Amino acid sequence: MQSDGGTTQSSRRWVRAWDVPTRLFHWALVVLVGLAYLSRKWDTGSLTWHKWNGYAVLVLIVWRVLWGFVGSSTARFRSFLYGPWTAAVYGLDFLRRRPRRFLGHNPLGGMVVIVMLSLVGAMGVLGLMSYDDHTALAGGPLAGKVSDETWATATKWHIRLFDILLIAIGLHVAANLLYLVWKRENLIAAMLSGRKPAADFEDEAEAQIATSGRAVVCLIAAVGIVFGGIVAFGGRVF
User: What is the DSSP letter of 211?
Assistant: First the structure.
């Protein structure tokens, strides 16, 4: 088939789906969640590396929230936040192997994004108010600013949420593999390359990519919000 400009196009033409900042966020968060576990497991002293890992996670989460309002079209919350009924219908269509394709997150995938951001963000915030469960000498920057009951509760749920997060991650990985086998749609490759084969997507034909400068501004703002918030509540970062 010929396009208006005379260039040959095929059904396998690739289109932009994910911008570079969104992809970097995704894989950086994967690495940092893994390092959060390892830094806690190996460091039984001051947990310095674990703390800074937590700061980095919080910066990423805040960045992603900001990017969800001003980022590229597929990264914006308005592009993938659907109602529960819409998500349920999509789930049924998926089980029936009905061909429904989305350039960005599908209705179920959008719900997973919110759940994961909420879990990781909540863990990061609770970590600021937690003491280590093995020693009271190591704690978050706000642990000494809250009551004993508060830091005890924060510490308990900081640990419990990680177990819940592991379950969510397992389901997320399984869903991606199921998509690959069930629908022949490689979502992992798309998050690596930023592209998808052109199709009749329900949301949009191709992503509208925001400028890298906007992503940098969001990152600077995220750093200011996280560390400024800690200082504002009387905590010490170092």
Answer: P
